[in-house]
């Protein structure tokens, strides 16, 4: 699964990396401990161009009667996207990129769970594959998203059996192509990212609390 991640790049780099423009009313600060139900940035294809929007992390399907369902839908399994009603139509028409600089997992030890920070070796900024939807609440429209997960690669397997689906720049082009709706072309993109292109290190238990959102969260320990 993917339950916490970071986005610490400045906005100019994010816009350049994803060839996208930021909405004028969007405010951004680097984040070191992004947690479910919090706002996250996402890149969508809109009107033939890429736009950076802000979504709530935790998908609330348009048909949901209660927004609390979003807490249970922070992730979507790649293997069942084409089958589940919550996701199969979004796979065709509402795909997004969720920019990140790294993510966290928790490794079981004899006494506790040790948080680890995972990132790419050569790319400081990358993207998770995501889906998004709109839900109408009594107070207005809420836009939400979910991060797609896949089987863990050999680096992450000792820590967790799942990992977020990370896309290469070439795969990002396909994922955001509004004319591409064929699941047979989309689903093969959602594979484990190569282990030899990733690295991880132990970090402080500070990250256990979403109230802690500072550079200390990603600093190596031990």
Summary tags:
5-stranded antiparallel β-sheet, mainly beta, 9-stranded mixed β-sheet, 13% helix, 4 helices, 222 residues, 14 strands, globular
Describe the structure concisely for a colleague.
With 222 residues, this protein is mainly beta. 13% of the residues lie in helices and 38% in strands.
Strand content: 35-45%
Give the ordered list of helices and strands.
Answer: EHEEEEEHEEEEEEEHHE
Poorly predicted regions are: none
Class based on secondary structure composition and strand pairing: mainly beta
- Radius of gyration, whole Å: 17 Å
- Shape call: globular
**Biggest β-sheet, characterized?**
9 strands, mixed
Q: Percent range for helical residues? A: 10-25%
- What is the overall number of helices? 4
């Amino acid at each position: 699964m993917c339950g916490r991640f970071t986005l610490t790049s400045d906005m100019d780099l994010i816009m350049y990396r994803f060839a996208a423009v930021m909405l004028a009313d969007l405010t951004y600060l680097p984040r070191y401990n992004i947690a479910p139900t919090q706002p996250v940035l996402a890149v969508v294809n809109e009107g033939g161009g890429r736009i950076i929007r802000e979504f709530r992390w935790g998908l609330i399907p348009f048909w949901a009667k209660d927004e609390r369902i979003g807490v249970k839908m922070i992730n979507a399994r790649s293997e069942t996207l084409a089958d589940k009603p919550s996701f199969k139509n979004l796979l065709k028409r509402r795909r997004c990129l969720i920019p990140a600089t790294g993510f966290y997992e928790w490794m079981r030890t004899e006494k506790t769970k040790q948080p680890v920070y995972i990132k790419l070796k050569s790319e400081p900024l990358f993207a998770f594959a995501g889906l998004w939807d709109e839900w109408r609440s009594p107070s207005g429209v809420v836009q939400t998203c979910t991060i797609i997960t896949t089987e863990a690669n050999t680096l992450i397997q000792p820590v967790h059996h799942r990992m977020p689906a990370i896309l290469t720049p070439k795969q990002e082009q396909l994922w955001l192509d509004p004319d591409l709706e064929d699941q047979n072309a989309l689903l093969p993109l959602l594979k484990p990212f190569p282990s030899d292109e990733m690295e991880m290190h132990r970090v402080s238990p500070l990250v256990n609390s979403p109230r802690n959102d500072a550079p200390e969260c990603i600093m190596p320990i031990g």
